User: Fold this.
Amino acid sequence: MPTPATEFGYVPDAWTERHLLDLERLSAEQLRLILDTAVRFKAATDGCRTKLPLLAGRTLANLFFENSTRTRNSFSLAARRLGADTVEFTASGSSVSKGESLIDTAKTIEAMNVDVAVVRHHTPGVPHLLGQALRCSVVNAGDGPHEHPTQGLLDIMTIREHRGEISGKTVALVGDIAHSRTARSNIWGLKKLGAHVIVCGPATLVSRRWEELGVEVAYHLDEILPRCDVLNLLRIQFERQYTRPFPSVREYALLYAMNGKRMARAKENILIMAPGPINRGVEITPDVADGPHSVILNQVTNGLAVRMAVVWLLCGPRQLQTTGQF
Amino acid sequence: MPTPATEFGYVPDAWTERHLLDLERLSAEQLRLILDTAVRFKAATDGCRTKLPLLAGRTLANLFFENSTRTRNSFSLAARRLGADTVEFTASGSSVSKGESLIDTAKTIEAMNVDVAVVRHHTPGVPHLLGQALRCSVVNAGDGPHEHPTQGLLDIMTIREHRGEISGKTVALVGDIAHSRTARSNIWGLKKLGAHVIVCGPATLVSRRWEELGVEVAYHLDEILPRCDVLNLLRIQFERQYTRPFPSVREYALLYAMNGKRMARAKENILIMAPGPINRGVEITPDVADGPHSVILNQVTNGLAVRMAVVWLLCGPRQLQTTGQF
Amino acid sequence: MPTPATEFGYVPDAWTERHLLDLERLSAEQLRLILDTAVRFKAATDGCRTKLPLLAGRTLANLFFENSTRTRNSFSLAARRLGADTVEFTASGSSVSKGESLIDTAKTIEAMNVDVAVVRHHTPGVPHLLGQALRCSVVNAGDGPHEHPTQGLLDIMTIREHRGEISGKTVALVGDIAHSRTARSNIWGLKKLGAHVIVCGPATLVSRRWEELGVEVAYHLDEILPRCDVLNLLRIQFERQYTRPFPSVREYALLYAMNGKRMARAKENILIMAPGPINRGVEITPDVADGPHSVILNQVTNGLAVRMAVVWLLCGPRQLQTTGQF
Assistant:
C-alpha cells in the first residue's frame, strides 16, 4: 500500500497556474483536476479528518479584509491538515490603519516567507491585483460580489458526489444573484462542466443581462422547480444592499423559500444546497434544511477537501518539480 | 519504560460520557477519574510543560460567545500539548451577526470535522443544547451564572494536590455567589467528594436557598474563618450585576477581604484560592495573594492538566475502542 | 552532515541574559552573538523558509497591549519555525478589562507554562517590570517610544548582510525621532558596533539633546546625504502625536522624503531602509521604495531570523545546560 506522500507525490501536468483567482479563467480540465484531487484527499484522510502532512514547513496566510468565520477557518484547517503553518491577518488592528498601501501590506506578509496568501476583500479584483504584485500564490476567498472560486468548487464537488457527472444537470441558483460571488463562481464552473444553469429571484436581484453568461433567467421558482436537479439557495445578503430589493422578507419567502410544499412538486431526488450561513424561514424552511435532500453540511466538509486540493496544487507539485523530493 | 502513548493507551471503563456539561450530573467515581487522569498527565509532561501527542490529527474548536482570555488559551494550550489542532471562533466577526442560528453555527463548525467543541455563552444551558444537536463532544466553558465544570475540577485538583483527600475538608466559597458559575461547579464537585461547603457573602449575593444544595450559608467571614481548611475567594463580577449589591467596595473589603489580620486567625495550614482574575484590595489583599498559603497560580497550571484530561477522556479512549490502535 | 539539532546544539558562553529588554544594556559581543546566530538560522532554514524544530514543546506567548500585525506575526512565525507553540493575548477581550493588574495578567499567562513572553505596551518600562516579576523570559516588542530591540537588530542585520561590518559606517535615521522606539534601539546597537549615527528631521521631532547619546543631530537631509552609507526612513507616527509637528505632509516630504532627485546625490551604493509600514509619498517615494537600493522587504525576512535567534538564545541553550540533552 503506498504511503500518502507517495500517493500524492505526482505532478499533475494539467496544473500550471500560480493562483486561484476565479473560475472564469479555468478550463474544464483544470476544474476536474481540482475536483478529482479533492476527492482523493477526502478519501485519503477519512473524510478530511486525519492529517496528510504533504506541506510541512509551508505557510498559508489568511488576509481577510472582510469579516469571515467559516471560510477563514476552513482554509486554516485545510492548511493544517496538510501540515502547513497558518498566520492570520485581519484588517482591524493591522498596519492598513496606519496608512500602509494594500500591496505593501501584502508584500510585507509575503516577505515573512508565506507560500499561499488567501485574500478576501470587498473590492472586486483585489486578489488579481495582489496576484500580479506578489511572488507567492494567491487564492481569492471572495472579492466583493465578483467571485469566490473555492465556494463554487465545493458546491460542484458536492453535486458530483451525490448525483454524479455535472454534464446535463439542471442547477438553479435562487435568490440574491446580484450581490452573490457564489453565484458567479457557480455559473462559470457549472457551465464549463456542461450543466444547464438557471438564475432565479426577484427582478430587483436578477437582471435579464445574466443571459449573456449563457444562463437561463427566471423570476418564478414554481415555474422552473419541476425541471431542477439541484437548488442552490443563496442567502439574502442584507449587509450588501443599499436599498430594499423586495417589500418584505415574508413576501420573499412566499415566492422563493424552499419549503415542504415546494419539495412535494420537485424532482424526487432533488438536491438542496445552500452556501450558508442560512436564514431559516427566509430562503429555506427548517424541514427542508434539515431534511433528507439537504447536503448543506456536506458542503462544509467538502470545503475542507477542495481547499486542501487547491492549496496543494498551488504550492505542492510545483515545488516538487523544483526540489525533486517530497 | 513505557512510552507515553502506551502509558495512556488504556480505556477507562468508568468514562462513558460524550460531553462535559456540568459537574452536577457526574458521579464521584467520574470526578475522581478526571482528577486522577489530570494528575497523571501533569506528572507525565513535567507539570504540563512537554507534549504528549495522544490526539494528533484531532481538532478542538473554541466557540466563545463571551470574551475570555485565560480559559480559551488554557483549552487551546491543553489541546496542543496533546498534539491536537485548534480553531478559534468568536461571536464578533462571525456568521452569528449575519442572522445564523446558534445551532447552525455550531453544526457548521462541526462539519469541519471538529472533535471537541468548547463552548462559552452568557445563557445558561447553551452547551447542553449544543450537546444534543451535535455529534462531536461539547465542553461547557461557562454558561452564564450556571456552571463552569473545568474551573470546579481545577479548584478541586489543587485542593487535593496540597491537602490530600477532599472528604471531610471544610471549603468556604466567599463573595459573589449569586453570579458565580465557579461556585456552582465547586459546590457540586466538592459535595460529591465529601467536603463540607460553606457559601459566604453579603445577603444580597448569598441567598438562604443555597441550603437546598446541602451547603452551609454564612454572612460573616470572621465567624466561619477558624473552621475553614480552604478559602476560595470569588471575584465580585461587576459586569454581571444590574444593581449595586453593597454600599461600597471599601465596605465589602472590610467584611470579606482576606487580609493579613484575618490570616492570623485562620487555621495554620489554610489554603487560599481564587479563580482569577483577582481584584487586589477587594476580595484579597496583596500580602495574602502573594503569600505562602496562596495557590492561585497553581490553579492556573492545574487548569491545563484538567483540560488535557477532559479533552483526552472525551475523544481519546472512545476512539481507541473504535479503531483498535493508538 | 550534521543534523540541525546538532549544529545548533551548542551553548554560547556569551549569552547569559534571561530577557531581551533593550539594546542599551547589551554588549557589542552579545549583539554580535545574536546577529551571528540569526545569520546561521537564516542559512540553515533556506532563508527562514523551512523548519528547525529545536524548541518543540516550548511555548511563546504574544502579550500585545497595543495593536500590531507584522511584529506579532513575525514572532509567532519565528517561534513556529523553531517548532514551538504560540498563544496570543490581546488587551481587548482579556481580563485586563475586568480590573486585573498587569503583573497578575502576565503571571497567569506564565503559569500556563509559557517559556517566552513577548510584550508590547504603550508605557515605557513595562517589559522591564514584567521581566522582574516573571520567571519566564521576556522580550520587549516595543514599549512606547522607548525601545524595540528586535527591530534594531533586524535593521543592523540587514546592513551587515548588504554592506559588511557596521564599524565605520554612517547611518542616518530620518524622520520622527522623538516618538521612535526604532530610533533608540538602532542608536544603541549601531553605536556599540562602531557606526557613526546621525538623527535627522524637523526640530520639532529631533532635539539637540540627542547629542548626549553620542549621535550627530541634523536638520537638513540634503546636507548630510552625501556622507550617508545607510538611510533608515522612519514613519511619521501620526498616532503618537498630540500636536502637529510640521505645517503639512507636503512640506515634510519636500524637506525629508527620499526621492529620485535625492538618490542622484547620494553615495552610489547607499542602502535605503524603512521599518514599515511605509507612507508612500511622505518619507519615501515609490521609485525609491521599489528601487534597487531598497532593502525594505529584506528587513521583514531578517525579522524572522533575528526573532528565531533571540527566542532560541533565551530559552534554548540555557535549558540545554539543565537537561544535558537536545
Observations:
- Chain C touches chain A at residues 47-51, 67-70, 73-74, 76-77, 80, 90, 235, 238-239, 276-280, 297-298, 300-301, 303-304 (CB under 8 Å).
